Amino acid sequence: MNKISILFVLFFSLLSCYGQSKYYLLPNDTLYNENGFNLKFKSLVRALPKDYSLTPIIYHKYEINDSFINFITFKKIWWGDLKIDPGNFELTYQQDPLYLHLHKKLPEFNLQDLKGNTFNSNRLLGKPTLITFWSIGCTGCIAEMPALDKLKEKYGNSVNFIAIGFNSSEIISKFLERKPFSFFHLVDGLRYSEKALNISAIPRNIFLDRNNVIQEIKVGLPGNIENNTVKVKNAVPFDIILRRLTKQ
What we know:
This protein has 248 residues and is α/β, with parallel strands linked by helices. The protein is built from seven helices and 14 strands. It starts with 5 loop residues before the first helix and ends with a helix.
């Protein structure tokens, strides 16, 4: 079996305390047992305006020691004047196919860089890697670029920082003239992202270990919408992952 992330290794001690059961991993990487998740969900629902409901969605499952960790996201729904009862939650299962690649080797690619040279993914071997998938039409992707640049500045050559853009070399080059982004850029990556990785939305950020095994998958950095603009404050969640991978 592929080497799993340190995050899941830490879960072993927790799982051994509770025995075989179900656990729930929230978007902020907080882990709950079934009772704890029920209580957390109630508190989230009570914090909503009265006309809204919250549906927890399992988008991936991971088995450890015969117990299951359910990866959770939430969908907020407006119900008009319908009164909401937060007493119980019903789970919806919608597998995100991207997460089926977790703890498996990154599918090999041959993509062009901005100069038209072919770059093979095996050139990433030997260092941890952060790959961000993006497009010039993705506001969330653009919002996190300054924070990602700070990570590159911090870790330098100890980590491969790769940006796989969905646009052509010409379009991306013109974009970078007005919006610098210091990652190493590969272009025309839409087909690879859809066919090889099943990426259905961006931004998506994939973290590889030194053997090109996918250890973490993240949607994007946390941010807020201010004046109709996405604002990303910092890259702390990604920094924690890179710090761990560089020590392995």
